[in-house]
Design goal:
Elements lengths: L7 H8 L4 H5 L7 H9 L2 E7 L5 E7 L6 E4 L2 E6 L7 H9 L1 E8 L2 E14 L2 H6 L9 E13 L2 H6 L16 H9 L8 H10 L2
Antiparallel strand pairs: 1-2, 1-5, 3-4, 4-7, 5-6, 6-7
């Protein structure tokens, strides 16, 4: 077996201590810059884990500001209709822990939020999150414990927003083909066009 790092001491020998700025930038509540970032973000990744330690990361998206800041300690995330696996929601019921990474297209810095969460069906919250007359079935009410801006290095390395990095969709199999191969669906795989049309009808 290849060599493994097995202690925090070994990690610190490899990486050293974090710089003062990296430590001090962690906030215990949302400030004006966090609020501004969230208001301009159309996409985030939500992380959670179950009581058995099974982890999950789930993409979330909407028009910029789809996540609403209620106050300096709370924000609320709509849970719109999806595939009904509800992995994240079940994890929240079991452990109440959550992590969120917010992205803004074209911006290499991200915003990290960690804290506790509950699933709410409060009508006032659902009204706040409504779009085009529709309300989500539930929402995730997050109590913020840690908030900090994350440096740009990962997105700079990946060139995520650069058009030179964008892949032509035709260079990958369609989702329908991949699912057919993975789970043995019968018949012709759903075309990418048909899948997108179906998604658009159900947003």
């Amino acid at each position: 077996m290849e060599a493994q790092v097995k202690s925090i001491e070994e990690l610190r020998e490899l990486y050293g201590e974090p710089k003062e700025r990296a430590v001090k930038k962690q906030l215990s509540k949302l400030d004006v810059h966090c609020n501004n970032f969230i208001s301009k973000s159309p996409f985030s990744v939500l992380s959670s884990f179950s009581s058995k330690g099974q982890v999950d990361s789930s993409p979330r998206g909407g028009i910029p500001g789809y996540v609403k800041v209620l106050n300096e300690n709370e924000l609320v995330i709509p849970d719109w209709k999806g595939n009904n696996r509800i992995d994240s929601l079940m994890n929240i019921l079991e452990t109440s822990r959550i992590g969120i990474l917010f992205f803004i297209p074209g911006m290499d810095e991200t915003l990290r939020i960690n804290g506790s969460a509950v699933i709410s069906i409060d009508d006032e919250l659902l009204d706040v999150l409504s779009e085009s007359g529709k309300k989500p079935k539930t929402c995730i009410l997050v109590t913020v414990e840690e908030a900090f801006l994350h440096c740009a290095k990962a997105l700079m390395r990946s060139k995520l927003w650069s058009s030179d990095s964008h892949l032509e969709r035709s260079e990958m199999p369609t989702m329908g083909q991949m699912l057919k191969d993975q789970i043995g669906l019968n018949g012709e795989p759903e075309s990418q066009k048909a899948m997108i049309e179906r998604y658009n009808e159900d947003l």
